[in-house]
Amino acid sequence: MELFSLKDKVSVVTGALGLIGKKHCEALADAGSSVIVADIDEEKAIAFAASLGREHTGVYLDVTNEASIQDLKNVIIERYDRLDVLVNNAAINDMFENPALAREHSAFENYPLSAFQKSIDVNITGVFLCSQILGQIMVEQESGSIINIASTYGIVGPDQNIYKDEFGEQIFYKSAAYPVTKGAVISFTRFLAAYWGHKGIRVNTLSPGGVSNNQDDFFIQNYAAKTLLGRMATSSDYQGALVFLASDASQYMTGANLVVDGGWTAI
């Protein structure tokens, strides 16, 4: 089990207060790492880090802002003087404030360019900037593991039928933004793994499936029916995979996409 130990390691999780972000932080902390909980909500990030223990730190982070990421880099150097694991988890997904208009607004023909651009800024540019700026610490120490969180929708196209209710009514459409940006994350992983491999830095993708989060019953049933395990994921289902990629247990693994989706993409 020493292979999975992160004792004396330092980890950063971006978007750390999200649905699976907190579970990422808990998993890394349980494996022995000091965790920097980075999120745009500074107050909650500090409180959550404190709940993990004294050796953990909560910080403000806007992944689209270079100065914000540079500030985080300074915190890492001043407090820990090293960085072993970077989890690029921050991302946005479509949310429609008015359910009555969700189908109309999410249809590709009507999808606003501003929403598409915002997804690019956070889901792609944010991963690029965090890797570029924070990865410099890893380059200097010639070691590290970068884990980019993608999605099954970065691998396969969305099945729009799962967004139909029990009466066959299309409630909304999965837009192009999330699949396009998550596909780009997988490609970026391969680029960075090839670019920094000689520096001892491993770069891998973790592609999770859908997580149960109080969705409508029809959606949960539709989604579960497409998985080989017959269920959606829980928010804890990715903790083992994350620690594996962060630790020496995966020391000969780089440029890979670890798919943990209950069999969604297997057939």
TrEMBL record:
Record bears the keyword Protein transport: no
Stored PROSITE patterns: ADH_SHORT
Assigned keywords, A-Z: Oxidoreductase
SUPFAM superfamilies per UniProt: NAD(P)-binding Rossmann-fold domains (SSF51735)
Gene Ontology terms for molecular function: oxidoreductase activity, acting on the CH-OH group of donors, NAD or NADP as acceptor
Keyword check for Oxidoreductase: yes
Entry similarity comment: Belongs to the short-chain dehydrogenases/reductases (SDR) family.
Name of this chain's protein: SDR family oxidoreductase
Originating organism: Taibaiella lutea
Phylogenetic classification of the source organism: Bacteria, Pseudomonadati, Bacteroidota, Chitinophagia, Chitinophagales
